[in-house]
Amino acid sequence: LMNSEAFQDLVKVTVVDEAHVIAEWGENFCKAYSELCRLRSFTGDRVPFAAFSATLTTESFSVLWDALGFGGRPFWGIDTGVLRENLTYIIKR
After folding, report:
1. Can you give the residue ranges of the Helicase ATP-binding domain (predicted)?
2. Nearest alpha-carbon partner for 21 in 47, 57, 48
3. Pairing of strands 14-16, 49-51
4. How many C-beta atoms lie closer than 10 Å to residue 45's C-beta?
């Protein structure tokens, strides 16, 4: 399927949600997670890759960067931190 030029022309973007699982589960849970970079060999630079996670650690970021083959490609990162003033935490006994 990925070798089909007609299919490749239909692919406009590759999006990975919950991207932190690539680092957490990639090698042990699902080998396919750690091989997402192979998609780039079919789509090249013409198809943007996007990865999203609300819980990506610095260590996981490095694994994700390598696993998705971001390399020298442009990168935009948004770190909003963990402080959520709109949430109220209530602990009851």
Report:
1. 1-74
2. 57
3. parallel
4. 8
Break the chain into its structural domains and give their ranges: 1-93
Dihedral angle over CA of 73, 74, 79, 80, nearest 10? -140
Exposed e or buried b per residue across 63-82, where buried means at least 16 C-beta atoms within 10 angstroms of its C-beta? bbeebbeeeeeeeeeeeeee
The values of phi and psi at residue 42, to 5°, are -95, -35
Q: Which tops the pLDDT comparison, 26 or 87? A: 87
DSSP strands (E only) in 14-87: 14-16, 49-51
Residues 6+ apart with CB under 8 A from 65: none
Q: Which residue in the block uniquely carries the two structure tokens 């970021």? A: 61
As a whole number of angstroms, the distance between CA 92 and CA 50 comes to 39
Residue with the two structure tokens 């949600």? 17
